[in-house]
Fold this protein.
Amino acid sequence: MKNMSRVISNFFLSISFLFLFYIIYRSEIYHDGNEFRFYFKYYVLAFLSIFISFITYFISKIIKINLLVFLILTIVGLYLTETFLTSQHKKFKMYKNFTNIDYDKRTKFKIYNDLKKNDPSIVVSPPPIHFSNNVDFDYAPLSGIANRTTIHCNENGYYSIYQSDRYGFNNPDQEWNKKQIDYLLVGDSMIRGACVHEPNTISGNLKRLKKNKKGVLNLGQTGNGPLRQYATLREYLPFKNVKRVIWFYSEGNDLKELNDELKHLILIKYLKDPKFTQNLIIKNKEVQKLLLSELSTIEEKERENSLFEEKIKRGPLVNFLILKKVREFFLDSFLIKVKSHNYSYLTEDLKKIINLSNQLSIENNSKFYFIYLPLYERFQLNNNNEHFKDYKKIVKIVEDLNIPVIDINKELFDKVKDPLSLFPFRSHGHYNVKGYELVTKVIYEKINKLEGY
């Protein structure tokens, strides 16, 4: 009896140490200690497991047997869950069955090198956040590299690639020639059009829905927060006759981006000085030279990302054994909640910026609309409540400013049976083609209703 009790404790301790040694191998040997931050949570779990294993030496045999049974049932349950989740997320096979085309598994650096052989001018354009708070830069660019084939991202089985316009945004260049712009969009990567081709973006869908030949300008850029969006309006809105300004708020990271933007030595000037401007349209040539000078830095960054992706790539059997899908679905989502920083203190700054953007729109004879966009985590583990990411608080702030709000969570996601179906393969990411299409339809119909059409 006593020996059996000790065997169970030894078993627990052995498993715990094996887990720790595996984490040490992955973190310190396989990745040369460069990914310690990623593996930190697993170190914590390993040491917690060792601590609990030591405790088992001092508890009764009955409790140990119950713990062992519980552990076995838990492991069986986890692998059954892994089997189910894996069967639901076979995106390579799903994409092949749907399109009869193989899922593009290349890294961004690999596709960049492949396409560069036929088009030497192709770019992975540095986003505005690349120029964060660096006093060595003369400008804080708000666009990408102009007139270039631009590689964006892959979440749907293919890389979204577009021809940038004269200022570096994701628009057909002729949109800038139109005398009147029906819709001018500002926002982050969701508005830029990640990760779909230009006709399937929100701006692309708007072009199809409206019944006139007036323009749609998409000024969205990856990583843009509220202050960059306001700065974008300050720089580009006065140069065009715009009927409507459509301001997009992405609940996932806009307050976090604002936290960084308020520390930016150039961007903060837009908030402090109502007459400040970088004259980005007039000085577009100088801005483009700055963007082009950073291409080698961006290329090196993508090369490093590619090497890391190749290094962590595992086969399906290994992924199954390490419960990859279970960890993604439960552990990583839980850690997002735990580690998520509270940026509620920035809501007054957000209110000020939105109010200034609305006033700027009015001064330029444009109608201002605020669009609230929900993110994947809201629906992944039952986070769809009014407190998640200060949802209701932010909507009320805008409503109190008497600004029309189009709440995509309320108007669309709360009404569909399966919200995750609007994300790529029901996984973390931006919206898929169907998601962008439905979001645009809601925006278009709500604006028409508000304007009495």
DSSP finds 19 helices and seven strands in the chain.
